[in-house]
Amino acid sequence: MGQPPRQSTRDSRNGHRRGRMMRRGRDISFLAALLAGMLAAVGARAAEDQREQFVVIQAGRVITLAGPEYTGGQIVLVDGKVRLVGADLEYPASARVIDARGEVVMPGMIHLRTRWDLPSYTRSGVHADRNAEREVFLSEIDFDALLRAGFTAVCFYPGGTGITGRAAVYRTAGDEKIRHLGAAWLRITMTSPGRDKKVLRDAITRARREIAKVEKARKEWEEKQKKGKEEKNQGAGEEEGKDGQEKEKEPGKFTPPRIDPAVLPLVQWLRDKKGPPLLFELSRASDYRHLEQVLAEAPELPLELLYLSAGSSPDYHYVIAELGERKATVVTQARIGYLPYTVTRYHLPAELVRTGCRLALVPMSDSPAALEQLRSRLAELVRAGLSREDALKAVTLRPAEVLGLAHRLGTIEKGKEADLVFLDGDPLAPGTRVYRVMIAGRIVWEAPEQP
């Protein structure tokens, strides 16, 4: 056999070259596609960062009330909400940084029961249809003292006695569109049983009458529908021959008569076993006994939320164990009193927590001094036995829970709105003052510079 032609060898070499070039081309195409993908991802991330407004708070200490405290902590906010909280966090270089390294940041306090800057009036009877929202004109209320004390939200209640109406919750500053946070509990007083027991009993009776009125109307409607159907069936034979294709008309829907709005929340509880929270106000232990007597006639009404007016000599020790058994949420003033007719100090807030109640605390009164003194009074409660965590939660998380806002406010954690207070020291330390206040991620108040 002869040697293969040289042309064939050259063709083989050329084929190898073309193969290498094709592989090299595929590699370059792959790398180009990979680079393009990476650039696209970076570009998309940059575009997302531009759409989202990042704010980073560099704090000396962060008190979250939802986990550990962070010394030298950071809070990453995006569009007014907490995205991250911790230490040594990563965030975009374009983020706006708030330098609060000399400050302590905590959730804003929530005043659970106030008539700050609202006019006083006298009203009695059953007015569950009233709402404190009707009384609140934000432009006419000076919120400066509340902001200076560290409050980011307040719950205004309707005045008077009896069933006075629904409370309303507002932020203390910020864009007007975000300030109204909704309706809250229905206020029911039992501070004067000779008057208030009759009012509550009469309201329950009226509510039951409203339920009976609707049931009667429904029964009459159903009987009318039944009678009409029977008459139609009797004449069906005659009509069948005339028009077998005629469709049967659907019966109309029942329209219940209007329920008296003054007792509607009680109707909801008695009939549906649900409704707005009911806040019962007491001034002494015996008021609780009178309230129990009335609610024994209407067990559908929940005895879960109480305001205990704490005078200098409260006698709630007679009923506090029962409140604990109920796991009640109790709102009271931040103070330590004395057992009646003794010099024995009585720490009502600590006893409430010890027996199993959830504790929410409010200032002693609606005065600027009482607002400023609240944190000092919390410190006194802690020195006398209440835990620091319970004291701080009693003015932040617990009020948020009562108001149905715990998913938005009350702690510093992912997803919650950035309603925060910046202090120049520990919140329970003497002399600590509020330095600035943030609501929905914006600084809305700053303390004036001291000379």
Question: Care to give the gist of this entry?
Answer:
The protein has two domains: 52-107 and 412-451, Urease, subunit C, domain 1; 109-230 and 258-409, TIM Barrel (Alpha-Beta Barrel), CATH 3.20.20. It is built from eleven helices and 18 strands.
Structural summary, described in words:
With 451 residues, the chain is α/β, with parallel strands linked by helices. It has 2 domains: 52-107 and 412-451, Urease, subunit C, domain 1, CATH 2.30.40.10; 109-230 and 258-409, Metal-dependent hydrolases (TIM Barrel). Helix content is 36%, strand content 23%. Helix 3 (193-234) packs across helix 5. The longest helix is centred in the first third of the chain and has 46 residues, at 6-51. Mean pLDDT is 90; it is low at 1-6.
Element layout with pairings:
Blueprint: H1 6-51, E1 54-62, E2 70-71, E3 74-78, E4 81-86, E5 96-107, E6 109-114, H2 144-149, E7 151-156, E8 163-171, E9 180-189, H3 193-234, H4 236-242, H5 264-272, E10 278-282, H6 285-296, E11 305-308, H7 320-325, E12 329-333, E13 337-338, E14 345-346, H8 348-355, E15 358-362, H9 368-383, H10 388-393, H11 397-402, E16 420-423, E17 434-439, E18 442-446
Parallel strand pairs: 1-5, 6-7, 9-10, 10-11, 11-12, 12-15
Antiparallel strand pairs: 1-2, 1-3, 3-4, 5-16, 7-8, 8-9, 13-14, 16-17, 17-18
What key phrases describe this protein's structure?
single chain, 451 residues, alpha/beta, Urease, subunit C, domain 1, TIM Barrel, 2 domains, eight-stranded mixed β-sheet, 18 strands, 23% strand
